[in-house]
Input
Amino acid sequence: MRRRYFLTLAGSGIAAAGLAACGSDSGSGGGDGSAGGEVEVFTWWAQGSEKAGLDALVAQFKKDYPDYTFVNGSVAGGAGSAAKDMLQSRLQAGDPPDTFQAHAGEELSDYIAAAQIEDVSDLYEEYGLTDVFPEDLLALLTVEDKIYSVPSNIHRSNVVWTNIALLEAAGIDPTAVPADVDAFIADVQKAADSGVTGLSIGTTWTQVNLLEAILMADLGSEAYNGLWTGDTDWTTPEITTALEQFKTLISLTNGDRDGLDWTDATQMQIDGTAAYNVMGDWAVASFQQADWTGGEDFGFYPLSGGEAIFGFLADSFTLPVGAPNPDGAKAWLDTISSKEGQLGFSLAKGSIPARTDVETDEFPDYQQTAIESYGQDTICPSLAHGAATPVRWLNDISDATSQFTTGASDVAGYQEQLASIAEKNLSA
Output
């Protein structure tokens, strides 16, 4: 029987289940909106396919609850770093939005500990979500028998994207999937030798996304997950190898990376100046918006070391303590968890639905493969996107990574820093 490895949240159990597609009746996804009023929805979806996904949700929300007025509280900045800082300031000042975006998993632990978000378990019963979300997703969301957010989708973080024309020009077979990270590096080097950027990348969070993909591939699921529980030692030779590979790949990226976001790095591929990019599957929506076709213009595969791993994250929404319009927030949670909301959102954003009863015939090739992989592969929670660690731990790793990629790139010093960060956060 296939095993899935998740971080255990406060003793919650984990059960395995795949994401299947079937065609049962619609979820609640509607209401009379009798309470009305403004509903401020706080996200970091301010550009590109993220904004397109938000627009799809807003359109559905207006259909479901026409008496409510959507207020866009988005703050630009990939992976939400700027948004999270502003959000924390507002929460501490007693000025919460009606609902805010967060990543499902350990990212929520700080908000829970600070009593800043409400238990929404009753909504799972009211909206019929317990029956349509996979058991392993429910387990990830559950903290001491309570659930504090509602997911709108599921994303994969460890995807390699390729510009097929540039690979062919460099003499690389675009249909061949590298067997491991070293083979991937060899292909990136070959592409760079042809005169283009080997691997496009952006600011710090995209670099952490690359780091986590390497760690997943090199360590395998059990050892990777052990990094966040204390079961895997950060000082091992395997970690050293992964960090050396990270250093090599960073040397093959664009020099202006720290001034770019993920959309800029993806645009480099679309513009034909970069061969590879390692990014979550929201990137596919950018390719689709550029009228690129999978298998013809761009390719994709998970960065692998042999084990089939699905780097997991899920966008979710909360009910903040003291929300000005809690009924409006609940209406938003209803829409984003409905079949219609999840279908429209994922089609626009490149993700897959969290619900198991959404018809998937409309999804293009990449999403079809993601649905299959989510049902078959071992699941690893994303570091860069809040599933693996609390925010403070991710922030510490991000700071260390920024110092490493902008400084002398001392692998020994970087590894020592990461080990110290783990020790500090595990003992907190």
Q: What stands out?
A: The longest strand covers residues 37-42. The longest helix spans residues 48-64.
